[in-house]
Design brief:
- It is a single chain.
- With about 110 residues, the protein is mainly α.
- The chain has a domain of about 80 residues.
- About 50% of the residues lie in helices and about 10% in strands.
């Protein structure tokens, strides 16, 4: 499903493909590849930027919104590994106090 953010990325890719690659991947190898492809010809830079947008949309459909991390070369990995996402900060459990232990003297043969 195409969202408004994807439409904005597509418009940015039409105007200047390296900017779309930078938004999607950050300052990574894919960004540098897109800059070089755009310098070689405007069309290859567009194709690469649209491919990155397509792979991002696939990751959103597969892992959910913000449930993935970009690992390079158009690949994404899940953040939660099919488990429930972490509990937000306000819900904290009470911690049990740690029992007091005598100090240990590592490397010492004489324990006073």
């Amino acid at each position: 499903m195409v969202k408004a953010s994807d439409v904005v990325l597509i418009l940015v890719a039409i105007i200047f493909p390296p900017a779309a690659a930078l938004i999607i991947t950050g300052c990574s190898c894919d960004f540098l590849i897109n800059v070089l492809l755009t310098c070689l010809g405007y069309l290859p830079g567009h194709i690469h930027a649209f491919w990155l947008i397509y792979k991002k949309m696939q990751a959103e459909e597969r892992f959910g919104h913000d449930g993935y991390r970009y690992i390079g070369s158009g690949h994404y990995e899940p953040l939660y590994n099919n488990a429930a996402p972490p509990i937000p900060y306000p819900q904290q459990q009470q911690q049990q106090p740690m029992p007091q232990q005598a100090p240990q003297y590592y490397g010492s043969t004489d324990n006073h």
